[in-house]
Amino acid sequence: MSADRRPAPALPRVHPTVVHMLADAAERVPHGEALVCGERRLDYASYLECVRGFAAELGSLGARGERVATLLGNSIDACIAAFGALAAGAQHVPVNPLYAPRELDFILRDAAPVALVVDEALAPAVAQIARAAGIRHLIRVGPQSRRLDRCAGSAGAPPAWPAPEALALLQYTGGTTGRPKGVDLTHRAISTNVSQREALLPTRSGERIVCMMPISHAYGMAMGLFLAAYCGGTLVILPRYAPDEVLAAVERERITVFPGSPTVFVGLMAHPGFARTDWSSVHTCYSGAAPLTAETLRRWREAVGAPVYEGYGQTEAGPVLSFNPVGGPVKPGSVGIAAPLTDIEIVDVATGRTVLGAGERGEIRARGPQCMAGYRNRPAETAEALRDGWLYTGDVGEFDADGYLYIRDRKKDMAIVGGYNVYPREVEEVLFLHPDVIDAAVVGVPDGYRGESLVAQVVLRAGATTLPDALAAHCAANLARFKVPSRIAIVEALPKTSANKTDKNALRRSLGEPTSTDPSGRNP
Fold it and tell me: In Å, how far are 279, 299, 442 from 270, measured between CA atoms?
């Protein structure tokens, strides 16, 4: 069944690229406040001038047609670097600064960027990895090095704006094989997706948007960096999610649009300062990653006075596929209706070819202009994900009679921890690197704060006495901290299927958690 019972609103203006979108904002509201981060503030005219200057610098380094990676925390520099790479005609590779050296090494080797823009605090640890990956230019950014909001016009004429069909983003996401996959997205895909989101969640000129999610993440870009530029609004950047800082920023900066996640909404409502915060300026909130309970949605709206619109997407889809629309019913538990120009169908899990009706569960597939061109250097996985013009999401869902989509399960073995996709196989491979580990299994389990957390069971070699804390430290040295299991148990053996594969449903049962609801009846 396609999501066509409730048609999406008409698509608003689509810019050729998000660089054109930023230039349009600078023309419309040159003196409008664009970026705020602590004491640093930048208007749109200066924002565009800095982007042009940094783009010219990158162009002089041979970036056009190549890739430029960024390893930056949330900052004004991160915004300028992202738009500067795109404006230079390079493909931007945003890398999460929380990644461990092992993860960074793989991504940088696979992406092969010509330049890496890195926070000066991370540069010493990253320099050797960058050299090994063949990166020719390491650009350090920070208070002791340089600030990108001071490079306007520093390197001559900027390059011509990129073409819509050129590759714009190379965004890495987890992989079932334990290795991250680089998602190739064109300028047309990401710019169109901004307008698709705008159709379902229209903004007003001059919105003030808080950004506590990582700008290196697909959600942070779509619902922060690009959203603000589209409406000529102010992006209020926080270095990280810290409840005290978020609550203070909402009141001090008169935030109007609040993008969050289940972790944020649940965490803030439990904070003693939540009830004392003046939320009167906030009119719209967004959420993704995992569903919020009807009770959480009710409590938030009563306390804040603004609804939470839940949506669905993935990196491979630019990332927005659906949202509860501002102009229609908001259904608790649903991720809404399909964005304009987007077809979503529920198909049987076994073959992916039989389209199912309302109320029937199956794999979610989608097609639209926002979908990826493919995975970098992964032809087999690209062929598996993109079939006959459809993106097979690996998620299990169903439509109701009104064409509202509900996510019911994941066909692929993945957990969403605090808004981040984590593939257990990647964590298992790190556990196997420990010399005392002979078998390991990791599963995601429900977590009231993070959405899901990871639990590992490990079998040690005979005679080994390694403790769970040592295994957790081993994981922390090789993985971003959100991928480290919250619990590690040493067991004599893992449950196995008749084919001698690890039986993760049996593992979940042993933990007292619900098993997979894959309608095919197969273990995930």
Answer: 16, 11, 29
Is residue 347 within 8 A of residue 324, CB to CB? The reply is no
Spatial separation of the C-alpha atoms in residues 50 and 352, rounded to whole Å: 47
Contacting residues for 135 by C-beta, under 8 A, at least 6 apart = 69, 108, 113, 114, 115, 116
CA distances to 142, 363, 502, 507 from 499, in Å: 54, 25, 9, 16
Q: Is the dihedral of CA 279, 281, 284, 285 positive or negative?
A: negative
> What is the Cα–Cα distance from 4 to 211, expressed in whole angstroms?
33
Tell me the C-alpha to C-alpha distance, in Å, between residue 129 and each of 66, 163, 182, 330: 19, 32, 18, 47
pTM for this model (two decimals): 0.86
Nearest-5° Cα angle at 77, 167 to 107:
45
Q: Which long-range contacts (CB under 8 A, 24 or more apart) does 375-380 make?
A: 375/181, 375/182, 375/183, 375/184, 376/110, 376/111, 376/170, 376/181, 376/182, 376/183, 376/184, 377/110, 377/182, 378/181, 378/182
3-class secondary-structure state, position 432: helix
The residues, ordered by sequence, that sit 6+ positions from 357 with a Cβ below 8 Å of its Cβ are 1
- What phi, psi does 506 have (nearest 5°)? -65, -35
Q: 3-class DSSP state for residue 418?
A: coil
Residue entry with tokens 């409008």: 32
Give the percent of the chain with pLDDT over 90: 75
User: Would you report the helix, strand and coil content of the chain in percent, each value rounded to 5?
Assistant: 30, 25, 45
Q: Which residue has the higher pLDDT, 12 or 414?
A: 12
Is the distance from CB of 149 to CB of 42 less than 8 angstroms?
A: yes
Is the backbone of residue 403 left (phi > 0), alpha (psi -120 to 50) or beta?
left
CA distance 179 to 172: 10
Give the chain's radius of gyration (CA, Å): 23
d(CA 49, CA 38): 21
pLDDT tens, position by position, 360-370: 999 999 999 99
pLDDT at 515 over 80: no
